[in-house]
UniProtKB/TrEMBL annotation:
Organism per entry: Nesterenkonia xinjiangensis
GO molecular function: triose-phosphate isomerase activity
Documented EC number(s): 5.3.1.1
Enzyme class name: isomerase
The protein's name: Triosephosphate isomerase
Functional pathway: Carbohydrate degradation; glycolysis; D-glyceraldehyde 3-phosphate from glycerone phosphate: step 1/1; Carbohydrate biosynthesis; gluconeogenesis
Matches recorded under Pfam families: TIM (PF00121)
Subunit architecture: Homodimer.
Family of this protein: Belongs to the triosephosphate isomerase family.
One GO-annotated biological process of the protein: glycerol catabolic process
Cell compartments where the protein resides: Cytoplasm
């Protein structure tokens, strides 16, 4: 729950302009932003307006933080995938740990949401991650793969190719999170790469990502990009992270999806 309409509009416009002004970003990294539902339409309008003024397509993907699996109905307080798409979203975040902990999101509801998002031509961004006690018990790999398998069950190869999978260990996210070390992330990313690396669009890492650790995180085998929270709340911070991603691409002579 960050940013008013005016703040969200300024951020989106500044981001779109900056990426278009910096060829090393536009040709190297894929930026996305996921504002609160109240700001979706104004952010979409601003991104579209920047593109129209510059005579090019704005290269920022807009996402919604959540959406219901039903297309309509008596679900007070929710929004549907068609409503999110109508407001300009092209991506929907699903299964964030805060949604699971505070709002009862389950493996089954994530499966329903993934299917509905795909049915409407949007990208699902599925979040998986284990709590500290699971990590300490040595069961992280089994836990996150179960979350992913449950949510992605029944999808064919074409559908899986449109999925973004974000690994966010619960103990490493949020204001109280402890940044994970490269050594701690090697095993879960090896597991995700083994099972899903060749099937999904990208596997991202999120969890206390900041300007100090982004370059190191991008070097982890299996990490295709980053899913950033508070370090990107300020536009300068996000642009610095995108520059880090672009530098990584230049060093790897490839293309990074961030």
């Amino acid at each position: 729950m960050t940013k008013t309409l005016a703040e969200a509009r300024d951020y989106a416009g500044g981001l779109a302009e900056a990426i278009l002004d910096r060829p090393e970003l536009a040709g190297s990294v894929q930026a996305f932003i996921i504002p609160p539902h109240t700001a979706l339409a104004v952010v979409a309008e601003e991104l579209r307006g920047v593109g129209e003024r510059r005579g090019v397509e704005t290269q920022v993907i807009l996402g919604a933080q959540n959406a219901h699996w039903e297309e309509s109905g008596a679900w007070t307080g929710e929004i549907s995938v068609p409503q999110a798409a109508d407001a300009g979203a092209r991506l929907v975040e699903i299964g964030h740990s805060e949604r699971r902990e505070h709002f009862g999101e389950t493996v089954e509801t994530t499966r329903l949401k993934v299917r509905t998002v795909l049915d409407h031509g949007l990208r699902p961004l599925l979040c998986v991650g284990e709590p500290r006690e699971v990590r300490e018990a040595g069961e992280a790999e089994e836990f996150i793969l179960a979350q992913a398998r449950g949510a992605l069950a029944g999808l064919d190869s074409a559908q899986l190719a449109r999925v973004l999978l974000a690994y966010e260990p619960i103990w490493a996210i949020g204001e109280q999170g402890r940044p994970a070390t490269v050594e701690e992330l090697a095993e879960p990313f090896a597991a995700l790469e083994r099972v899903y690396g060749a099937q999904v669009e990208a596997v991202l890492y999120g969890g206390s990502v900041n300007q100090d650790n982004a370059a190191e995180l991008l070097e982890i085998p299996g990490v295709d990009g980053l899913f950033v929270g508070r370090a990107a709340w300020g536009l300068d911070g996000y642009l610095e992270l995108l520059e880090t991603g672009a530098s990584h691409v230049r060093g790897a002579h490839g293309r990074l999806r961030q």
